[in-house]
Design brief:
Strand 6 and strand 7 form a beta hairpin. With 222 residues, the chain is an alpha+beta fold. The relative contact order is 0.24. It is 18% helix and 36% strand. It contains five helices and eleven strands, in the order H-H-H-E-E-H-E-E-E-E-E-E-E-E-E-H.
Length: 222
Amino acid sequence: MRRSEIEAAIELARATAERCSFALPPFAAWTREEWTARGEELRPTLERGLGWDVTDFGRGDFARTGLTLLTLRNGTLDEQRSGRGQTYAEKLLVSAVGQETPFHLHRSKTEDIIHRAGGALVLELYPPDSDGPVRTFVNGVEQDIAPRTPLRLPPGGSVQVPAGVLHRFWAEDEPVLAVEVSSVNDDAADNEFLGGSPRYPEIEEDVPARHLLVAEYPALLG
């Protein structure tokens, strides 16, 4: 991805959140310099992966395949294993019209995707080792979802995606602002894409970078 695409996506996400009266945490507005200047003070924040994440999943066409995310809170794998401390995560998701997050699954993470504002949020689910339905919660009610059958959620709607279930989603009619509430999130190791797409993009530095991305944290942490 070009850095200019990334910066534009973050600004659009911030504007979308403001328009939808979804208040963001202060770190959503921090510059790269503000992140790096605070060094060791922010190490626990960086280790938990809080912050901006923009990806085209290695497809090279962000308008058609991509997502803008802001990790708002996240625990650690140690906390999850012990069952103590912060055993949950929350993300903001902003999807443009027709912009798909492609089929992928999480081996460890169960997540609720909750539509907060915008057009229709359309999802497809299916288990990779079965042709049967996915038994899960839609709008808080347990039901069977036929595999690869579009599920359209209006604002306020939600679906639980169990661990191990392939899923993809996109926005229709208008951009969508959604949130993901889940068990601890491990983007480095707990994403498997059909076709082997990378989770994070390679970046072409065509403009100066204003925001620091989650994918860039390891270099800062050393």
